[in-house]
Amino acid sequence: MTSEPRRTLSDVSSDYALDAGFDSLLGTQLIDFSPTAMVIIDPDLRVRRSNRSFREIYGLSPEQLAGTSIPELLPDMDPRVWKLARWVLASGESVEDTEIIGRSVAFPQEERTWRFSHFPLRDREGVPAAVGVTLVDVTDQRRAERKHAEAERRLRLLTRASTLVGRSLELDATLASIADFMVPEFADTCSVYLLDEPLDTDARPELLELRRAIKTRVSGPPLQSCDIPFSAAGEILYCHRNSPIYQAFASGRPFHHAADDESLISGYQTPGFLDYFRRLLLRWGIAVPLLVGRYFHGVMVVHVGVSGRTYTDDDVEMAANLGGRISAAIANARAYAREREVSVTLQRSLLAPDIPAVAGMDIAWRYEPGSLPGRSPCAEPGPPIDAEVGGDWFDLIPLSAGRVALVIGDVAGRGVTAAAVMGQLRTASRAFASLDLPADDVLTHLDNLAQTIGAGPDGALASCVYAIFEPTTATIVLANAGHPPPALRDPDGRVRLLTGGGGAFLGIGGQVFVQTCYPFPVGATLALYTDGLVESRDIDIFQGIGRLQHALADAGTADATADRLMRLVDQANRDDDVALLLVRAAAAINTRTLTIPLTLDLRAVGQARHAVNAALRRWQQPETIETAELLVSEIVTNAIRYSRVPGELVLRSVPTALYIEVSDSDSHLPRVLHPNEQEEHGRGLILVDALAARWGTRPTHSGKTVWCQLDTGTDTGPEIFT
């Protein structure tokens, strides 16, 4: 038996090379088994032919489809399908990749997304005779894309929320920026309610009493044009156990609820609150508990309604994440607020509450703590603004014989620590001032002290200016420890910076401070200030000092000048305290001065007594002559006895007092002795202490000065104002 040779595919192809019927058979199978759904529609929109994939989508047999009108067969189909078919027949042009959403017999319970393409099928003359339609189910692809886009959206929301939460420590600013961001990105309305004090999550009060922390945010013209009740900050909301807010508190999780469920809304015990929900047309809500550890601080409530959106489980989870971030911000802001309150209280208690009046001086002062609470939502990106209280201080301290100490300083750093260091330095400067030390010596002592209280290399540093007004010579003597230079306006309007006497910051140690003397005539104004007055994020300190000099040039009272200088503060960009102390030599009061050089001869005692007698008679103060002569005798005698070089006596009369000052080269400060009956010496200062209203000594670089004061209580001449 002879077997036939095996036939190959090429043999079969050659047998049917010219067989058109075979080609048609192959084409039919290609179309019928293609995974792409295909259908041919004639000009009457009747199905001429369809493949298996198309029939499976619509759940129809070939017999049901053949010759049937598409609009009649599929009345729920998007009419664009046959409208596009008509357009293709009329124009002869294809329309590709049109996405249409709808239901089919195979998927009656869900909407699917198909991508349609329509193209003309032509007869032998090239005229469009039918329309070929292909469609691909892209539902799963679009769902995946939407899910991916939604995940990206949630990530962007969380990232932006985290940025807003970390931008400021001021609670109101943080909550306002969060609410503005949530609406309309995530909600149609957003409200934040806080307890006055955090509540343990194990507590179960009958009612929660919360206060609206910020004005409710709403989206869209329909809501924004509505007169919304219960939307202002500060209003109280009472929540019963069945309210969404209470259930969020009790569960510790976001509570997803139907906003129009009156069984839930009735849990709000505030009258008229139901109307609040109805007027806002709210449908779905999420109450997000704001928890920090075991403590409930409040709740954020978001709703959707007019936008047509709904909340999914993913939205609830994202709301929980947002709530965690907001809770941390609330805890930080409240801790910051407590520390700031302590700092401000401490600082204000340590600042000079009452600047004493000084004869012949017009004085004004201003102080503002760092007051930038945060960055507005529309501000440019940047680091958080630190608005903690700083360590600025100033003081005016009466000294001996009508002299006055002027002090201004700034401790680097923020918060309670800076305020505490400032308080110690201010107290110390007053203590050193009571010793009547020279300006440079005061800074030396403050520098030594600063190193022992943590204001050195391991902590904050401090700058300081200590100045002494000398009325006898109409001068200002000052020393500077790293502080912005004081500005002095001369009577002619010229303004100069007092850059002499400069040194490094207090707390560095090992430095020598130098004091410098400047004329301070009638009509001159001295401005002591901290860097917050002249410097901000947008204005460097040199530019700011130049602006201060220009503003100080105008004449005016100390108060008017202080107001003018405070207008220089860059309120929009400052983050530092501002302290300003202005002193103007405003009037030449009826002051008389007599200066008498003293020789080392004891006969100088009688000469000094005679000169004082004559001066007081000229000044019409005869009632003080006897006491003044006794005081001069005792003090001058001691100066001549113990000094090695000639000294000086200064007699100065002001309307209410007579000052006697004797300077010599002996650095030993005298003290009151208590001699017994047999001792011949040591009673001079007892006499001085008995006769003078006040007396004391102060060290000088050349020795010391002993001074005493007699109260006269009378003004023997008119004041001369400039």
TrEMBL record:
Enzyme class: hydrolase
Residues in PAS domain copies: 29-92
Listed EC numbers: 3.1.3.16
SUPFAM superfamilies reported in the protein's UniProt record: ATPase domain of HSP90 chaperone/DNA topoisomerase II/histidine kinase, GAF domain-like, PP2C-like, PYP-like sensor domain (PAS domain)
Keywords assigned: ATP-binding, Hydrolase, Kinase, Magnesium, Manganese, Metal-binding, Nucleotide-binding, Phosphoprotein, Protein phosphatase, Transferase
Xref: InterPro entries: Bact_Sigma-Reg, GAF, GAF-like_dom_sf, HATPase_C_sf, HATPase_dom, PAS, PAS-like_dom_sf, PAS_4
Entry GO MF terms: ATP binding; kinase activity; metal ion binding; protein serine/threonine phosphatase activity
Reactions it catalyzes: O-phospho-L-seryl-[protein] + H2O = L-seryl-[protein] + phosphate
Taxonomy, superkingdom: Bacteria
Function: Primarily acts as an independent SigF regulator that is sensitive to the osmosensory signal, mediating the cross talk of PknD with the SigF regulon. Possesses both phosphatase and kinase activities. The kinase domain functions as a classic anti-sigma factor-like kinase to phosphorylate the anti-anti-sigma factor domain at the canonical regulatory site, and the phosphatase domain antagonizes this activity.
Full protein name: protein-serine/threonine phosphatase
